[in-house]
Amino acid sequence: MNGFVKLIHDITPPKHLKLMEVCGTHTVSIFRGGIKSLLPKEITLISGPGCPVCVTSVKDIDAAISLSMTPGVILVTFGDMMHVPGGDRMSLYKAKAQGACTEVVYCPLDALKIATDNGSSKVVFFATGFETTSPSIAATIEEAGDRGIGNFYVYSSHKLVPPALSALMSSPAVDIDGFILPGHVSAIIGKEPYEFLASDYAKPGVITGFSTDDILMGIYMLLLQISDKKAEIQIQYTKVVRPEGNPKAISKIHKYFDVSDTYWRGIGQIPQSGLILKDEYSQCDAKKRFSIEIDHCNPESNACMCGDVLRGLKSPPECALFGKGCKPENPVGACMVSSEGSCAAYYRYGGAADG
Ligand code: SF4
Ligand code: SF4
Q1: 283-303: per-residue pLDDT in tens?
Q2: Best probe residue, ligand 2, of 56, 84, 335 (max atoms within 8 Å of C-beta)
Q3: 23: CA distance to ligand 1 center in Å?
Q4: Which of 108, 127, 180, 226 has the fewest CB atoms lying closer than 10 Å?
Q5: Which ligand is nearest to the Cα of residue 338, counting in written order?
Q6: What separation in Å is there between the alpha carbon of 168 and the centre of ligand 2?
Q7: CA separation for the pair 36, 43 (Å, rounded)
Q8: Is the Cβ atom of 51 under 6 angstroms away from ligand 2?
Q9: Helix (H, G, I), strand (E, B) or coil at 264
Q10: CA 328 – CA 71 distance, rounded (Å)
Q11: The predicted structure's pLDDT at residue 337
Q12: Can you give the pTM of this predicted structure?
């Protein structure tokens, strides 16, 4: 038996515990490593709102589709965003099939190359992601400015993780005993932004890496805190995450973005949880430079339970559409789109291992 598995079994939890892994990469690693089946039955792991693909609003998807259909515009984004259903289950991928102009990139700087190669077009980067990706978008805006690239615009749909956790904890329905906190996001923001979980809600959190051993060790550190009746934010992923995060990346974010209220798919409006471009960069703010036509703004499908899945209230197989009307090749909700979305991970690896 793996050393951490044995240590975990040696601690008897005081009650049935629900631990939330906030990040979708953790969700996938937990399935890949068969971690749920290694844990005592008193521990349930639930998935949280940690995939930016899943939480991008229908309105933002529809705006991106509208931009992609605007003559003279090339809409650039990450591959996962192409399949996310917007209103009426339209997607960027379906829009492309109807003649919309879209390009997929792996890194924001590639969008600048598209802009320089297509000088007569307006290149709009549909920017989604958490604190992990926003510094690179900020750096790309800076690079566009330095190189005098005037046909590059950003549609910011960036979101911040700690305000979403705060919104989760303020909901009486949510019942979580501890948090497996995201390694990548925390490499940027450090541990201070999560301290409210411990100080205001008496919930422990451990910032954890992505290997099976990292996650098991993170769970063990959480259990130790719970059994000692402690609530602290600790770092398991010390080889990557420093307590203060990455101050250079944080200052880059704050140079280009203001924090604002924003809407999370399935969860709703969360105060101070989004990033919008500062007024001084409005010349490359697609929201200000283009009149974006959205004919409809259908909310998510009524039958889709993404909201409850993202808040850890339901597991994907509890949704009536799971694996029936909703599959990765034809998703109804966003959680089935990204390979790191909870529903897609359950679908791919099976919910049988659920603890
Ligand atoms: S995209 Fe992946 S790594 Fe980034 S937050 Fe979502 S799940 Fe985590
Ligand atoms: S299975 Fe599909 S419809 Fe159901 S919650 Fe997941 S994404 Fe939404």
Answers
A1: 999 999 998 866 555 555 678
A2: 335
A3: 6
A4: 226
A5: 1
A6: 19
A7: 9
A8: no
A9: strand
A10: 31
A11: 83
A12: 0.90
